[in-house]
Amino acid sequence: MYKTQIILQKIICFAAIAVSALVFLYSLGLMTDLYDSLAPTMMDRSNIDDTWVPGSQIYYHMQPFNKALLGYSIGLILLSVFLFITSTHSRRRYYMGNVAAVALYAVSGVVLSVWSHIQVDAFKTEFLTKVDFNELQFFAEMWETPYIDSTFWFDAHYVVFGLVVLVAAALVANLCWKFSLMKAEKQLIEDGKKVHA
Q1: For site-directed labelling of 106, which of 15, 97, 130, 153 has its Cα 20 to 30 A away?
Q2: Radius of gyration of the chain from its Cα atoms, rounded to whole angstroms
Q3: Is the model's pTM score more than 0.90?
C-alpha cells in the first residue's frame, strides 16, 4: 500500500509544479490579445479616457491585477518547489515540514484561485459590456490592427484555476492517506511488540 501511495504523492507533487507553471503562463498570455487589439486605440496613453474605442480602457484597468497575478504565480511555483525541498514527493513518513509545505501550497492555491476567479469574471463582464466592438472593428480595419472579441483568455481561467484547486485537494487527500497509513503501521508495530512480549 505504501508503494502505491508514494507513487501517487510523486505524481501529485509534479502536478503541483506543472499547474503552477501553467498559472505563470496564463498570467503572461492573459493580456497579450488585449494589448494587440486595444492598446493601439489609445490616442494619448497618459490619459486613458482619450481613446478611439469606448471601453478599451479595460486594458489599463487589468494591468495591476495581471502584475499581481504574475507575482503570485511565481510564489506558487516556489511553494511547489518547497514540496520537493521537504521531500514531500518521496518521503515514506511525513513530518511537520511536509505538513507545512502541503498546507502552504493548498491554502495559497485555493486563495489565489478564488481571488483570480472573482477578478477575471469581473473583467470579462467589463470587456463584454463596455467595449464598443463595432468601433473596435472599424478601427482595426482602418488601421490594420488585430480585432478581438474572443473571451478565450477570460474563459481559460476556469481550467487553469480549476486544476490548481484539484491539485491542492489531491495534496490534502494524500496527506490524510499518508497519516492513516502511518497510524496503521504504528499500530502493527505495537501489536507486534505485544506478541513478542
Answers
A1: 153
A2: 24
A3: yes
- Name residue, grid cell 481613446: 51
Reduce the DSSP state of residue 189 to 3 states and report it. Answer: helix
Positive or negative: CA dihedral 45, 156, 12, 101 = positive
DSSP string, 66-131: HHHHHHHHHHHHHHHHHHHHTTTTT-SS--HHHHHHHHHHHHHHHHHHHHHHHHHHHHHHHHHHHS
Cα separation of 6 and 178, whole Å? 9
Give residue-wise pLDDT tens across range 115-163. 999 999 999 999 999 999 999 999 999 999 999 999 999 999 999 999 9
Domain residues for 35? 2-196
Gap between the Cα atoms of 150 and 124, Å rounded: 10
Count up the domains in the chain and report the number: 1
